[in-house]
Structures are given as C-alpha cells and as structure tokens.
Amino acid sequence: MTEEPPRNPPTPDIDPEQLRQFQEFQRFQEFQRFQQAQGGPPALPPGTPAPPQAPPRPPRKPLWLILLGSKLFRRLVYLLVVILIASIAYDHYFGPADEGGEPRAQGNKEQAGRIPKTPWGTVERLYQHVALEITDQGCMLFADNGKAKQKFAQAFGATDCEGAIRQAKKQVTNVALYERTAPEAGDTPTTKQVEISSCQVRVQGGPRLGRFVLTKLEPSGSWAITDYEAEPADCVTG
To answer: Residue 20 CB: number of other CB atoms within 10 A?
Structure first.
C-alpha cells in the first residue's frame, strides 16, 4: 500500500535576523509609499547613510567694507585729498575773497582778481606778496607807467620792482604776522585817487613799505599803485 505525501509540507526554519530585515524592508516600502502620497522626497533605504549637507553660505560683507576694497573708491578718496590740499595751498598764498566776493585770482591786469577793488585791499595784497616773496604778482599791483615801480625799487636799493620785493622780504622776521598787515578799511572813496601811508598801518613782523598813491582804473574799478614815496622806518626821522 503506497503512502500519500503530506498535504502541508513542513515550514522550513527562518533565520531570525533575516526575518527582522525582511520586516524592516516591508515597513520601509510602506513608509516610502506614504511619503510619495504626501509629495515628500523619497526615503533612503535602511542602513543607507544620509547625504552630506551643503556647507552654509558665508556671511555677506557689509557695503562699507566692499567700498574700502574698491580701487575706484580709493582713487576718488585720493582725488578729494589732492583737491583739498590744493585748495588750502591756494588760500594760503592768495588769501580768501576780497570785499564783495572779489576773488584773489590771476588774470589780465584789468580783469577782476589781479588788482583788488579797494585801495586798502591793494596795499594789503602788496604786504602779503612781500611776506611770501611773490614778486611777479606783487609788481602787478603797480601801474604800467613805471614811475611808482621805479621809486619803490630805489627805496629798497634794487634795480627793479621784483628786486625791491626780494629785498623787503629779507627784512621779514615773522611771515604769519606780516602777511596779515592790512590798512583799516574806510568808506567807499568818492575820488579816483587815494593816499595810504604805512605809518598809519599797524605793521608787525617786517618793514613798513612806504606811502602809496592809488588810482581807480576804468572800466574795471580796480585800484592800482600809481605813485610811491619812501617813509622813515620809525615814521619820525626825516
């Protein structure tokens, strides 16, 4: 009599570790399907290391630090410094504006700026040019006829106006005080000629330059030195 095979074959033995991994894989598949249904990124399989995170972005430099590192910004700063130094030097050698906004600029003798618009402004300018030994501009304050220039040169033992300014400069002991020498400004002259004596002016740090006759030039309105007379150094002895 033949034996019949068993209806239910015996279940083979399953390794517990393999069973645990199989169950984890099933749970991972279920979690993956859940994430896909929610629209999230796919999950990594169990045991897979997480991908490296992107390094954090370095903090952005402030604007002032970016400007300091800019070549164009540094050049602009250098240019401003040069302009400032030039402006200070110009004010030192040529002084600020005269009364009424008259600039102390160079130009033609009849143009504004070469000769001041007041007689006392012209004498003040001459003392400044002697203090700084600016011979050409100092002599521009004299009229073109040459009479006043020649007398001025003779008073200081020189052959010309420029030489007289150089000789007077040698007697200057304090440039800062001397270049501030200024006759007291009076009312607007009603005549075309005015006399100004250095003996009536407070002079410090250098020699008195003498008595000046100034004439108003037309049409510019500037006042030029048209005549000159030497005065005693102490304004007393003859």
So the answer is: 10
Tell me the two tokens of residue 40. Answer: 């999230």
Cα separations in angstroms, 232 against 56, 207, 211: 87, 10, 10
**pLDDT: is 49 or 80 the higher one?**
80
Instruction: Tell me the C-alpha to C-alpha distance, in Å, between residue 133 and each of 8, 59, 140, 194.
Output: 130, 60, 13, 26
User: What is residue 13's predicted lDDT score, i.e. its pLDDT?
Assistant: 62
CA-to-CA distance for 103 and 114, rounded, in angstroms? 9
- Distances in Å between the Cα of 116 and the Cα atoms of 17, 33, 55, 125, 223 are 110, 97, 72, 8, 6
State the DSSP H helix or E strand holding residue 196, giving kind and residue range, or none if neither.
strand 193-197
Write the single-letter amino acid at 86.
Answer: A
Quote the pTM value: 0.53
Domains of the chain: 110-229 (3.10.450)
What torsion do the CA atoms of 31, 32, 36, 37 make, to the nearest 10 degrees? -30
Residue-wise pLDDT for 180-231, tens only, equals 998 888 778 888 999 999 999 999 999 999 999 999 998 888 999 999 999 9
CB count in 10 Å sphere of residue 86: 10
DSSP for 88-133 reads: HHHHHHH-S--GGG-------TTSBTTB-SSHHHHHHHHHHHHHHT
Predicted confidence (pLDDT) per residue in 3-26, tens digit: 565 565 555 566 777 777 777 777
Residue 146 identity (one-letter amino acid): G
